[in-house]
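Minutes, structural biology subgroup

Action item carried over from last meeting: produce the C-alpha cell record for AB hydrolase-1 domain-containing protein (Aegilops tauschii subsp. strangulata). EB confirmed the sequence was re-checked against the source entry. Recorded below for completeness.
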Amino acid sequence: MVKDSQRPFDVFSEELASADVFLQESQYLLYGNGKDKPPTGLRFDKQQIKGLYFNQSPSKDIALATVSMRPIPLAPIMEKLSLTAENYGSIRRYFIQTLDDRMLSPDVQEKLVRESPPDGIFKIKGGDHCPFFSKPQSLHKILLEILQIQAPAALFPGKAETLEEEEESAEKS
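Output recorded by EB:
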C-alpha cells in the first residue's frame, strides 16, 4: 500500500528498474503532448498483458479484457501522494493478496503489507492480478467478509439481513 510522500509507481518499481530507466527504455510510452515533452501514458503489449495481469484467468475473460484495456495515464502513478492520519488513516484498510500475481509478486505484496500494515489480510490462492476474472467467487466471499467486519448494519441499515438471505439462497442452489 502506498505511504505518505511515495508515488504509486514506487510500489512496484523495484521489480522494474528505476522510474528514469523505465521511462527511457519503455517502447510502449505514449506522448500525448509531443515527443519533446514527458510521456503521458503507457500501453502494454497484449501478450504482456496476458502474462502479467491474467495468467490464471479464463481465455474468454482475457479476450474481453484485452480489447477493453486502454492506455494507463502516467500522472496518477508518478506523483507523490500526501496522506494524513486524519483522512487516509481514518478508514479501515484490508489487503487481498493474490498468490499467483505476476504484476505484483507475492514478495512485493508482502512488502507492501509490512510497510503499511492493513487491518486485515486475505489471500486468494490461484488468483492473478485480476481476481475478479481468475477467482470471482473467492473475491466475492472476501468482500462480503470485509463488509461484515465493517459493521454493515451501521453503514447500510437493512442490508445485513439482505446479504445473509442472499448467502443462504446461494448456498441452497
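Discussion: The longest strand covers residues 94-98.
Next step: EB to file the record with the rest of the batch.
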